Protein 1
Amino acid sequence: MTQLILDEAMVREPNLWVPGRAPIGPIQADLSHPDMVGCVGWWPLHHPVHGLMDMSGYGNHGKLVGGLYLQGWFAYSDASRRPYFDGTSGYIEVGDIPQVNFGSGSYTLHAKISTVDLDDRQSIFGKDEASGRQFGLEICSQNTSASRGNFRMIVFSDNSTYRWEDTANNVISAYTWYDVWGVRNGDDFNLYLTGEGGALTQVGFSTSGGSWPKTMQDASSPLRIGARSYASNEDFWDGLIYDARIWNRALSTDEMIRIQNNRFAPLYPA
């Protein structure tokens, strides 16, 4: 396990509840809130138990698997704690859920991430195993200067035909927080990134030209956060992930900015 060391300045999240008062007890979401329109999965991951609950209303709760540890969140006096992915065996299992079989439809993937490792490919979302490949959002570093610090979204029309969109290299740095967004809007792929204290920036784009697959195959495979289920190539995440969400529509940039600025607005104590 690579030890993740984060000081207070690196982990401060000003919109996570109220400074000095981390969430205690069960939470629920206001499903009428604008941020919840089309949301088919939301795992806040702000807490080792309640954060695994699916706030979308579909009840697809996550389960901690393998090497997951608790990382203190020292920006707050009572230290809310969240899972830390160890890079070798830890992930969150959601399961094979029908809400993310998007076919040719639009969708949006989002998570807030921090990694300690730019030497290996790492999965943020993966619904991808050899016999049932569908989609993924990942850092695709390969420990070479030609492919390092970039991230990618990918869709499969069968188990060997796929299309991805990559960012340029070096848009991701280690030990740094980012909001990452992968958006399919019709036949276009768009990638967005917000670094610590920065502005939302489009960092990848592909149009509908060419013969690349336009329909995600309807296949059986488990959705995972922090890994994929492709045997011997699980691409385990090494670091922290939270605020993992999926929508069955393409979010606008205005919506992304609103969510980043008021991240947990739909949530309240149960």
Protein 2
Amino acid sequence: MKDLAVEEILRTLGDAKTVTLRPGDVLFHEGEEAHAMYILKQGTLRVLSGSTILETVRDGGIIGEMALIEHLPRSATAIAVEPTKLSPIDQRRFLFLVQHHPFFALEVMQVLAHRLLPSADAQLSRRTPEDVINTLLNLVAVPRSRATA
């Protein structure tokens, strides 16, 4: 995510707690139930499936969004490479951010598309980026009765 967007999102989260990890600490394990996604305020995380490194996420990046949006177990393990600070975003805060900060929604969709396209061969997801984007859009859709009222 762009620095300005990250700063705005972090200001919006204001009262959110900060998760602090030391090098080698695990944020979450592959297969675990997901209750939050995270914005990296500072540090670096390595994302692994088994012993395969899938991605390195740095300052301003987001992690854990797929499992939160899809209500599926974590598709990978995330381990801190250096001292790391993160802001957790649960489902309620996620929906608020998507509805009130359109650029946040676009950033999440771009991250999802970026991660899903190369992951088809790695078996991270059997869904297309369009499927995930449609799921995200359905999460924030205004019910018809409210839209016409």
Protein 3
Amino acid sequence: MPNAALVTFDGKVKGRLLILGCPDLSFLTADELRACIAHEMAHLTGPDGLYTNFVRRAMSGLSGALEHMSAGLSDDGDEEGPSLAAWLFLYPPLLVLGWYLSALCALDASIQRARESRADMIAASVAGRRACASALRTVHREGNLFDIVAVPQILDALEARSLPANYYATFRKFVQVHPEALDEVEQASRTGYTVFDTHPAVTTRLAALPVWKDEGPQDDRPARDLLRDPDQIERLLTAAYSRFIRESGRDPDEERRRQRRTKRREKRRRATPRR
């Protein structure tokens, strides 16, 4: 993140932040971690930060405007629904804005894919093609699998009051017991790509990596062992992550829509003259 603020266990940090996912450290080697860091650092060079700060904010504003206009045309649970004037006033610009935002998202995705390819090239030049390729496979398989299974498993554990002190250790055991889950993630990644995907397909990224003649000696130490106290870090993250999941039980988008409906009904109620 080129310009952000983040609260950590040791205090608050801000500025250019590079964030590495803890689940990936359980499966990466030191060389692969070096490739990941080089890839992420590449995003902090060149025009990437400028693009993120300005263009993505503009897209977020357009998306918010589209959401508000769509909410104005929804019935919001009211019996009367939107008026004819609201339809005539909002529907044409809603169509135009929706088409424009869709086209802009497709263009943004193509730029994002180019940025990812550029970062892969820089990572391969720093850590070597072999380490970069294996890191891509690992982050894609194990990292995506964590995103799929972590929240349901933690929610089930919270309901059963059996949350482990270190969920990351539980996830490592899950991968060992169910290696077929990784194969399913890899198989699913080979299909379904669209113009709105911000990352190229893994097979495309692997094929585009340059070949280097001399990559030097390999460092196959587990990346997790590079941490001073990995078990303590994972315990702290387990507590923080589970608290976040517990407090995010409601869909935030649905909650915002519910609040807007309540405000509009209250406004109409106050505007209606009493008899």
Protein 4
Amino acid sequence: MVQRPMSVTVISIIGFGLAALGAVGITYSLLQMGMDSNPFLAELAKDHRYVLFTEINSAIGALMTVFLLVASLGSYGLRKWGRKAMLAYAWVVVAHVLIQVPITMFYVMPQIMQPAIARAIANTPPGPQADGLRIGANLIQYFGVCGSFFGLVYPICVLVFFSKAPVVEAFNGIAAALPSNPYGSVHYGPPPLPPLG
């Protein structure tokens, strides 16, 4: 009988959790779009480019959430397609982050977010509220970029552990060999009785 490697168990369970969190996060962000009382977020919601960017990312996120859930189920059951699906998920996430981050840093932030911050501050009376708005808006931007890179940790773990020989063998139905005893056979229990006569 093939025993599921511990790394497969852990990564599959984490996949279940990330899929659940992803579903909650996407649902919340879509429900809150255009309804936020934060002046900066309210200004962003007025920009059709940002709304389109958010909707595209939400659609990709929703598809990847469903894909991760299915892949995690297959992986937990040691299905061959489960390993392939997890590897495909990991590569797609890596590619998505490497494409999304430059777009965010060199287009969305300077062309959409910074003007939205300026408009929001212009409509806010000078004082602590305006300063807090400026700090909060900048934190939203930079934490968003840092969060994207942090999101690479899980797919990289999938790529590393799901490429190891024992994991590949487990998915192929090959049971791990028991370690050999270099000291020969070991007798457990009471000593054998001496021969009669």
